[in-house]
Amino acid sequence: MPATAQRAAGVLAVLIIACLCVPPLVVLAVQGFEGRGAQTVTSARLVELLGNTLLLALLVVAASLVIGTATAVVTARSLLPGRRVWSTLIGVPLVLPAYVFAVALTGMLGGAGSLTRWLAPLGVERLLPATGLWAATVCLTIVGIPIVHTLVAAALSRLDPALEESARLLGDPPARVFVRVVLPHLRSTLALGACVIALYAISDFGAVSMLRYDTLTRAIYAQFRGRVDLAPAFALCSILVLVAAVFIVGQVVLRGREAASAPHARPAPARRWGTTGSIAAIVFLGIVVLASSLLPIATLATWALNGLASGAQPGPVLVEAGNALLYALLASVVTTLLALPIALAARRRSRFGRVVEGVPWVTHALPHLAVGLAILVLSLALPAALYQSTTTLVLAYAVLFLPLSVGAMSTALRRVDGRLLDASRTLGRSDASTLVRVVLPLVRPAALTGAVLVFFAAFHELPVTLLLRPTGTETLAVRLWGAMVEGQYTTASIAALLMVAISVPLLALHARVAARAAVAA
Length: 521
Known about the structure:
This protein is mostly helical. The two termini are about 20 Å apart. It contains 22 helices and no strands.
């Protein structure tokens, strides 16, 4: 990297972090300290909320790790027919938030649910309503499974197969090889997946609200709503932030040192599992895909069609879809532009680069509801035009999702061959010209990937949008949440279907473009 560009990027990165990422952290610290004595809830109620939150996180992490690891092993280590298709179908819930599955689960179960009607010929008259701990666990697990699946599948592809072959030559059966050889090498990956899912579970607001399961996030919103004094809400926020910090530290401890791997290890050979094993694997994958994708989408479609047939009015969901697309697009563009100087400054693995790259991750790891409240307080101290404005909302998205773009671009920048930069300077190119004509074209695919990740994250974001959206403006996420709270199930199902219809094709298009770019490279 040209020295002039590196210094300029470092200055810009410090300014961006100081103005964008640090202020919410300061507000959370100050408000949490000042609100430590605020009257929020009783001690017994606080213990109950904390217990509910931790229990939900524990159940979701356990279920996601077991099922996600199993699907990754089945699709990565067997010659199962259509295993790539199965892997793609398992990943579909990645582009949808948990509250969409909460809507689907609500419409599926209960006395009038679609699944109840489908099972009526078999004598099933009523299913358990989708409320409480078990329903929240199911919805969050559906989102957690593809996260673990993706991480474990990537880790398995990096594992040197010679380790497993040596264990087999010593007479260990496949199950013992997996437990004694493969699982220890997956420790770091599983710890990272557990931390990501636990943070998602404790910070979720939409699904637990729709399914009426009391957690700290619901209590924080209840303390904020309709109050002038935000001290009680920030007092509960500080507890939620401490829980998040415990999970992050625990992940670091559990991961330990990264296991060494062969730099050019050949991929592990996929094996045939026999007729019985293949049938069992297909049934298992079919159940996972059916429960996580097919049944929810079919339920939403059935619910929407029945509501429209009965004369229900869905409301201006197309306008709200346009608003959501606009905000997400603005967030992806602004976040990518802000992330570029940070990625350039973090290219060299110096102490300064690690700090510059690490600070945005701190903000990203915090519960979104807490960060949203902090930005709301900051907007009250700024000019009135910024309060509940598009600018504030888009910058809030940037605060939350900056690491998604920085991570993608910094990885690509570290792979840039320094000889290309030397050749450019030898040909008389200036530092600025080298950056524009050599570096940026090489980073463009990674920047696009980061922008897509930010787009989907902003498109689905609920608590921050709920707090900071411009007055009188709704998005699909807010409409879906409000419709469920008010019992407008037709509107909720149509809004959820629109999210599916927008998210899945866009993800497929991006995957196709990325594949073509990889082949061209």
